[in-house]
Specification:
Number of helices: 14
Helix content: 40-55%
Strand order of the largest sheet: 1-4-3-2-5-6-8-7
Number of strands: 8
Length: 417
């Protein structure tokens, strides 16, 4: 029996067949729908969803690539249908965890913490965001925490490629979702679509939130650009993605095991963006006033397989098209051994610290795993925003400014004497 995890392909039964129908890629529903399907006319009349425009945008993109002589396959890194299957399975596992949990939330601790940190950044902005678009990733924890913590939200549009994940969100928030503070009814719309094929109308939301969802997108600048188009002028884009330093321990353990057992190395962890890439992505998406910051979380697990099972529950298995379909039992066992030998868990006093893992004594047991989270913030263009002066338009040099400040400091000291 072959074990499968983040560095393996999903079971064939999870993948299913690819539906190439246009309408299968853009299905929308509201909280009043029980069968999770709508007619084409009802979708077209929706206040926020415009599937026709999304299809036209996809056709124009394909035509542009063809005109440029670029094959679409050459720009495709991830298998979207496999990733949809991963998220379907993750929804099932999260639902079972909630049913077996004694707590009210029953959510995944890493997704909950990442969502909390994103909403903390949203709270730092002292302005209301009544209409919010939630894209992929930690959709369950994002919607739930919005209802619990925000006093201004009135409409939430949840966009996810997984229908099962959308059903889970609806089950958790209920048929009549309300804000926790004042029981104000919140309208929630559920839209099934891929992140880089958003069927959302332009200029209809005040804020776009994506918590750990966009790092699986093939056309990340395009997806972020579409998210920008959905924003009103001076609207906020706030996203969190896993960074390139995530799961360093798993990469090293797999590389050591494959080198020793098979004489070569293959990519067992999906490629991720680095800090230096995040600012460029915001600029390419046409977002203004870009800002990027980083958190590094170190989590402890009893065994490497517990880590793999956690990644499954989050839907974070490898979805690279060129991935290897299996792993030898001997290589998997050796990788497990290398992980335990080289990355034993942090001591209890270091749990939750934002630092790289440090080896602990064997008596402490367990292993540690690093998750780097990149937070990207940008604003849709507006005439009311601050704007930088054109290059070369300065009338005062930095040298003159430095001299003036030094002269002012000298005069201040002289007056004090």
């Amino acid at each position: 029996m072959r074990k499968r995890g983040i560095f393996l392909a999903p079971p064939p039964s999870l993948v299913g067949t690819t539906n190439t129908s246009w309408w299968s890629r853009f299905r929308a529903t509201t909280t009043s729908d029980d069968d999770w399907s709508t007619s084409q006319s009802s979708v077209m009349r929706d206040q926020y969803v415009d599937t026709e425009a999304a299809m036209e945008r996809t056709r124009m993109k394909a035509a542009a690539l063809k005109a440029a002589g670029v094959k679409a396959e050459s720009m495709t890194v991830f298998d979207r249908e496999v990733k949809r299957a991963h998220r379907d399975r993750a929804a099932y596992l999260q639902r079972k965890k909630k049913e077996n949990s004694n707590t009210n939330s029953g959510g995944d601790f890493l997704l909950e913490e990442a969502t909390r940190r994103v909403l903390d950044r949203l709270d730092d902005i002292k302005r209301p965001f009544k209409r919010i678009l939630v894209i992929g990733g930690a959709t369950v924890s994002t919607v739930r925490q919005l209802l619990e913590k925000r006093q201004d939200v009135e409409t939430v549009i949840v966009c996810d490629s997984s229908e099962e994940m959308l059903k889970l969100v609806k089950k958790i928030v209920g048929d009549v979702p309300k804000r926790k503070f004042d029981d104000f009814p919140v309208e929630i719309k559920y839209v099934r679509a891929f992140e880089d094929d958003l069927p959302i109308k332009d200029g209809v939301v005040d804020c776009v939130l994506s918590v750990l969802g966009l790092h699986w997108v093939n056309d990340l600048p395009g997806a972020m650009g579409q998210a920008r188009c959905t924003l009103v002028p001076d609207g906020l884009f706030l996203s969190a993605i896993f960074g390139g330093d995530s799961l360093t321990e798993l990469r090293i353990a797999c590389a050591l095991a494959e080198t020793e057992n098979e004489g070569g190395v293959s990519a067992r962890v999906s490629p991720l963006a680095h800090v230096r890439d995040a600012g460029n992505l915001l600029g390419r998406a046409g977002l203004q006033l870009p800002a990027v910051d980083v958190d590094t979380l170190t989590l402890n697990y009893k065994t490497p397989m517990d880590l793999v099972e956690h990644l499954r529950m989050m839907g974070e298995q490898n979805a690279v098209i060129e991935r290897r379909q299996s792993i030898k039992r001997s290589t998997m066992q050796l990788a497990n051994q290398k992980y335990v030998e080289n990355f034993s868990a942090l001591s209890p006093s270091h749990k939750g610290s934002a630092s790289m893992p440090k080896p602990s004594t064997a008596s402490q047991g367990g292993i540690s795993a690093t998750f780097q989270i990149l937070y990207m913030t940008g604003w849709s263009p507006s005439d009311t925003q601050q704007k930088a002066k054109e290059r070369g338009s300065a009338t005062v040099s930095l040298g003159d400014l430095k001299s003036a400040l030094e002269e002012k400091e000298k005069k201040k000291k002289k007056d004090e004497e």
